[in-house]
């Protein structure tokens, strides 16, 4: 390869394994900015984990895809710069030369384990495919290696699992299969693109531990892309912080995490949920605003071509109370039943048993008409700001739709909607525009305004910040806390993120398999957890040691 | 949003061609009596006159009728039957699809079994049977075509409504106390308008093909000159007079092509996201 | 293999249900038609003699309440009695059975041609998206999709039989040629060529367009990126990962559209004088022989169900996720 240059190195110093030099990737003409990444440079050394961290749109993934030659053609192309693998420029290589590196010397795993595997191929065959491409191993040797790899990533009974199709495996198991596939050829470099973002916190911990262990064992270089500083603190040796397609800070993990130099890094770290329980204690005396007793719901799904008939019990005998002005958090992993309970309270689904008492009236015993007046008192803020606003209605109409349905004159409701936009920190003129003109955080504010328009006594927030970037997350949480205090609202806050729950809730219930396994004051639950599952959850929060040693300046000094 | 949509549509060459074709066909149908004032069934020249002879652009048929006059007047029947049967089918399809999708449960199941059944049975055979038994007329043809065309749309609408129903903005409308009717009409249907419009434009094309096939078999409205009838009656003299079946066939082809191009253009303009690939 | 058996059994139950509804539909059509049900069953008014009409009236108990009549009608169908064609002076079931093989041969060949051709062309277009091959395939598919099927048949006859004289225009075999063995097969093949192409072309266009869209969608999926990240070659990515996943939706639609394919064969058969159900239908339409028409509707429904089971089986073979038990 005459066209690849070898960089001159100081004598005696081994060249870095991977060097990104002034990499610029151009976006298509109609995009908002000309480059996805601009003049990015960083290096990756053997036996280290480099975390590239940034918010959505920072270009952190694009760089990784460029290394793998996986940029979506023809939209993205490398406009300038070099990517040197052991001194050889990947950008200048032929397609065949790049292919020889891919999956062999440089391997990659992705964010979505549910879609990253071919649904029609046995997982063993998918791992074996990499061996067929890059080695001369015979059938038997390949099979042996597949089993060995499945075993190495901690999957149970690899002999039988190898013959399974992906749909039989859980998300965590699939991500392990992906890792086994990536490591099958013992690559020098593993690129991990947000590999734990789609996973539950306890599974995330297991996968992070696995990657760390394998990295240490094989002295591999890992390029780990994430948006979560907790994850960075957990595994990074060095960190590159990216924003708007540029690297704004690069340095050893310890330095970046504890003494960030760049303004942006500092702001990002400060916006993290600090995870300390609120100091204010709410008097839980007096009659409860809402009490849920023995709520059960059995899910029957299936009958379609793909899924088979399954029964799932959630909300198995839940008991919980919410007092005026109190914020109760429901914490749990996906499928724990926390959203089911929320939906039952606002009447979006009908539980199979139990009682939900609102100021003493059992909501579940009411028919449609009887339930209607209570809709005003209980309002909900949804998870996905991009799905929760009707794209064909103007913002003011969206906010006013509830009051109008309850008979408020249209003009009056629309005027009130504009006022409410001010309350949630938006300009009143926003009312005349359509949702697609707003960012995720702004949409969530609109969603909150819609709930407030009904003047509710209880606000149910179902993962209201989990779809947002960290910096926006903090703003929306502040807004919720502010409104709650001003209006003396009671709130049921549903989240998978314990750090967020600790920060905003007075009382916390931890849910697992449809049961509340622990319930009490937030300070108690987080400070002195008694249930083993709560302890496991708390233990799985990434970057705890760092959180503890480094109180972000955003929170009150303790 | 509308301006973006129009721009996207106008940028699509095929869609603009399709629109031009259909516009010409519509003009032909509207001004048929101006272009060819005499009855298309009248004998106006020698039989078996080839194109460009005897003052007839496309020649004449076995009975000396002007082929060009037949094509211009035939546009009326094609468009009339295409549009009315599609309107009827859209009405049935949206109604059944929306109810099945929104309410679900046993009612939804029942409606979908019913829909599936109508999709499985050989629909052209059913159309032939119905029209033959009820004797061919505009009404029986439109009814029969509508009856076999609504099912795919009902399935489509049901799917859309089902996915929209679980969308958070619809749930928000529920928690805000909007009634089911309001939610279906104001929240859900406007959001599945684009697939309905796209399939409706394709359904008009299919209906025109169906009508022409019926006429070809001799099951057209006996009082209306139609393209399919012209092809069908000329097939026995194919060897001697190719133009008699060629030109009406081209008329059908061009019309259906135009409608399909419009449908595709609408689809692309409604779904700009499909054309762009996701980037991280 | 018991799960497969169970699957087939459930399909058969569904098939019986569909046929039941078809029979009821036929019954309702007879009664909804203008005029006396007996004359409808006999054929065009005045064509059959009074004795035959009277015989029908007693045979189907047409003076009984409607539900009794339905029972009688269903009873006849279950026994394989699809009525009697006064015009042809033969039982309808005999007429249908005689014509069925020719239609099955024609539709099955056209179905295979359309499926194989459509999948291949659609994939080719998707792989060359934006290039001339894609544009050419797209334009041809668009045209074929817009052309009336009977007209394509006529034009093919005009070009290949009338002008070039390469292929026979009519019938199933050369009458009186007395071929046997290979010669006979070749003769039938040459007769089949144009009808199969005519019928297959339209559906090939349908499947080509769908396959193109489906392959493009699959090609943008994550697992294709995974395969690329493994260092797999583009050819192997297409054959090992894209193809199988992209075919699934085509099979689903092919199953649903089998009814349309069989409906189309009526037109094609009447153009090429192919001695199948379509030709029978055409004659029955001319003669207003309703018993035969209703019989055709029933038999083609059976055929559609057979096609559906066929595509379902193909689907099960390809997709491991299908739970055969439901």
What are the main properties of this structure?
heterotrimer, A: 558 residues, alpha/beta, Rossmann fold, 3 domains, six-stranded mixed beta sheet, globular, disordered C terminus, B: 280 residues, mainly alpha, MetI-like fold, 13 helices, elongated, membrane (chain B), transmembrane helix (chain B), cell membrane (chain B)
Walkthrough of the structure:
The complex is a heterotrimer of chains A (about 550), B (about 280) and C (about 325). Chain A is about 35% helix and about 25% strand. Chain A has about 550 residues and is an alpha/beta fold. Chain A has 3 domains: about 1-105 and about 220-270, P-loop containing nucleotide triphosphate hydrolases (Rossmann fold), CATH 3.40.50.300; about 290-375 and about 455-540, 3-Layer(aba) Sandwich (Rossmann fold), CATH 3.40.50; about 385-455, no CATH class. In chain A, the strands form 4 sheets. A 6-stranded mixed sheet of chain A has the order 6-7-8-3-9-10, sandwiched between helices. The longest helix of chain A has 18 residues, at about 200-220. Chain B is mainly α and about 280 residues long. Chain B has one domain: MetI-like (MetI-like fold, Orthogonal Bundle). The longest helix of chain B has about 35 residues, at about 65-105. Chain C has about 325 residues and is mainly α. Chain C has 2 domains: about 5-90, no CATH class; about 95-290 and about 300-320, MetI-like fold (Orthogonal Bundle), CATH 1.10.3720. Chain C has helices spanning about 1-30, 35-40, 50-60, 65-80, 90-125, 130-145, 150-165, 180-220, 220-230, 235-270, 275-285, 290-320, and strands at about 85, 90. A two-stranded antiparallel ribbon of chain C has the order 1-2. The model of chain C has no long low-confidence stretch (mean pLDDT about 85). The chains are: A alpha/beta (about 550), B mainly alpha (about 280), C mainly alpha (about 325). Chains B and C meet through helix 5, helix 6, helix 10, helix 11 and helix 12 of B and helix 1, helix 6, helix 7, helix 10 and helix 11 of C. Chain A: It comes from Roseospira marina.
């Amino acid at each position: 390869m005459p066209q690849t240059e070898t960089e001159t190195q100081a004598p005696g110093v081994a060249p870095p394994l991977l060097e990104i030099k002034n990499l610029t990737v151009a976006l298509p003409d109609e995009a908002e900015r000309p480059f996805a990444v601009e003049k990015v440079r960083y290096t990756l050394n053997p036996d280290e984990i480099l975390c590239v961290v940034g918010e959505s749109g920072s270009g952190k993934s694009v760089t990784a895809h460029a290394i793998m030659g996986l940029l979506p053609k023809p939209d993205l192309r490398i406009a300038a710069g070099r990517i040197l693998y052991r001194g050889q420029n990947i950008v200048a290589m032929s397609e065949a030369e790049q292919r020889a590196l891919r999956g062999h010397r440089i391997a990659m795993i992705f964010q979505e384990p549910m879609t990253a595997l071919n649904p029609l191929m046995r997982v063993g065959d998918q791992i074996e495919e990499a061996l067929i491409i890059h080695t001369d191993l015979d059938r038997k040797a390949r099979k042996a290696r597949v089993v060995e790899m499945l075993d190495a990533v901690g999957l149970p009974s690899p002999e039988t699992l190898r013959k399974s199709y992906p749909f039989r495996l859980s998300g965590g198991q699939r991500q392990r299969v992906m890792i086994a596939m990536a490591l099958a050829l013992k690559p020098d470099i593993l690129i991990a693109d947000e590999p734990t973002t789609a996973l539950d916190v306890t599974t995330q911990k297991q996968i992070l531990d696995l990657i760390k262990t394998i990295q240490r064992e094989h002295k591999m270089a890992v390029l780990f892309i994430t948006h979560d500083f907790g994850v960075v603190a957990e595994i990074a040796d060095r960190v590159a912080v990216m924003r708007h397609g540029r690297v704004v800070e690069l340095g050893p993990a310890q330095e970046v995490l504890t003494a960030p130099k760049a303004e942006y890094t500092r702001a990002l770290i400060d916006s993290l949920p600090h995870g300390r329980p609120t100091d204010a204690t709410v008097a839980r005396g007096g009659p409860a605003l809402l009490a849920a007793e023995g709520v059960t719901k059995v899910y029957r799904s299936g009958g379609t071509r793909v899924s088979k008939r399954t029964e799932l019990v959630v909300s198995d005998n839940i008991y919980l109370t919410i007092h005026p002005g109190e914020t109760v958090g429901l914490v749990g992993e996906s499928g724990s039943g926390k959203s089911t309970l929320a939906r039952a309270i606002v009447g979006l689904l009908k539980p199979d048993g139990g009682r939900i008492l609102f100021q003493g009236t059992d909501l579940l015993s009411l028919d449609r008409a009887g339930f209607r007046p209570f809709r005003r008192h209980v309002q909900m803020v949804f998870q996905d700001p991009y799905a929760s606003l009707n794209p064909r209605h103007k913002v003011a109409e969206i906010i006013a739709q509830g009051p109008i349905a309850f008979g408020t004159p249209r003009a009056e409701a629309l005027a009130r909607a504009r006022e409410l936009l001010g309350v949630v920190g938006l300009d009143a003129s926003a009312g005349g525009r359509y949702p697609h003109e707003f960012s995720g955080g702004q949409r969530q504010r609109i969603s909150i305004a819609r709930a407030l328009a009904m003047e509710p006594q209880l606000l149910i927030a179902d993962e209201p910040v989990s779809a947002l970037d960290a910096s926006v997350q903090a703003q929306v949480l502040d807004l919720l806390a502010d409104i709650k205090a001003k209006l003396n609202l009671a709130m049921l806050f549903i989240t998978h993120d314990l750090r967020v729950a600790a920060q905003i809730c007075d009382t916390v219930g931890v849910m697992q398999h449809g049961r509340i396994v622990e319930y009490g004051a937030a300070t108690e639950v987080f400070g002195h957890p008694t249930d083993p599952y709560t302890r496991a959850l708390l233990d799985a929060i990434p970057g705890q040691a760092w959180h503890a040693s480094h109180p972000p300046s955003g929170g009150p000094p303790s | 949003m509308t301006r973006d949509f129009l721009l996207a549509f106008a940028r699509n060459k095929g869609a603009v061609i399709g629109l031009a074709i259909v516009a010409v066909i519509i003009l032909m149908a509207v001004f048929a009596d101006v272009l060819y004032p005499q009855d298309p069934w009248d004998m106006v020249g020698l039989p078996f006159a080839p194109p460009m002879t005897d003052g007839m652009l496309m020649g004449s048929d076995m009975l000396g009728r002007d082929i060009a006059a037949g094509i211009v007047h035939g546009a009326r029947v094609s468009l009339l039957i295409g549009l009315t049967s599609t309107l009827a089918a859209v009405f049935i399809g949206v109604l059944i699809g929306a109810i099945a999708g929104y309410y679900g449960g046993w009612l939804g199941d029942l409606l979908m079994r019913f829909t599936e059944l109508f999709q499985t049975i050989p629909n052209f055979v059913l159309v032939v049977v119905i029209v033959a038994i009820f004797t061919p007329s505009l009404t029986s043809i439109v009814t029969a075509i509508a009856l076999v065309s609504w099912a795919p749309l009902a399935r489509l609408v049901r799917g859309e409504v089902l996915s929209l129903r679980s969308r958070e903005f619809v749930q928000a409308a529920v928690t805000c106390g909007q009634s089911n009717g309001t939610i279906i009409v104001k929240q859900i249907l406007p959001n599945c308008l684009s697939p309905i419009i796209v399939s409706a434009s394709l359904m008009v094309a299919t209906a025109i093909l169906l009508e022409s096939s019926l006429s070809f078999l001799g099951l057209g409205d006996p009082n209306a000159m139609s393209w399919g009838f012209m092809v069908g009656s000329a097939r026995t003299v194919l060897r001697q007079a190719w133009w008699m079946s060629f030109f009406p066939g081209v008329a059908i082809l061009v019309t259906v092509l135009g409608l399909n191009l419009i449908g595709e253009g609408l689809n692309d303009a409604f779904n700009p996201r499909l054309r762009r690939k996701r980037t991280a | 293999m018991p799960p497969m058996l169970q699957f087939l059994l459930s399909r058969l139950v569904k098939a019986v249900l569909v046929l039941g509804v078809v029979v009821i539909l036929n019954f309702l059509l007879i009664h909804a038609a203008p005029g006396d049900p007996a004359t409808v069953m006999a054929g065009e008014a005045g064509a059959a003699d009074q004795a035959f009409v009277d015989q029908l009236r007693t045979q189907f108990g047409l003076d009984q309440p409607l539900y009794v009549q339905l029972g009688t009608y269903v009873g006849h169908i279950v026994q394989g009695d699809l009525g009697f064609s006064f015009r042809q002076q033969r039982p309808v079931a005999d007429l249908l059975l005689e014509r069925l093989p020719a239609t099955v041969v024609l539709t099955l060949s056209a179905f295979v041609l359309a499926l194989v051709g459509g999948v291949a062309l659609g994939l080719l277009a998707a792989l060359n998206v934006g290039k001339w091959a894609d544009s050419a395939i797209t334009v041809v598919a668009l045209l074929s999709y817009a052309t009336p099927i009977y007209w394509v048949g006529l034009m093919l006859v005009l070009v290949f039989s009338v002008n070039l004289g390469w292929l026979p225009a009519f019938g199933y075999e050369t009458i009186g040629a007395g071929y046997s063995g290979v010669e006979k097969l070749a003769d039938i093949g040459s007769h089949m060529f144009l009808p199969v192409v005519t019928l297959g072309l339209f559906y090939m266009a349908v499947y080509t367009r769908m396959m193109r869209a489906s392959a493009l969608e699959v090609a943008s999926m994550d697992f294709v990126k995974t395969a690329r990240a493994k260092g797999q070659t583009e050819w192997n990515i297409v054959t090992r990962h894209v193809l199988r996943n992209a075919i699934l939706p085509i099979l689903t639609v092919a199953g649903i559209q089998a009814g349309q394919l069989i409906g189309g064969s009526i037109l094609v058969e009447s153009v090429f004088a192919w001695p199948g159900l379509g030709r029978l239908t055409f004659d029955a339409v001319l003669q207003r022989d309703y018993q035969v028409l209703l019989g055709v509707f029933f038999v083609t429904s059976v055929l559609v169900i057979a096609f559906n089971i066929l595509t379902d089986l193909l689907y099960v073979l390809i997709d491991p996720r299908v739970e055969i038990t439901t």
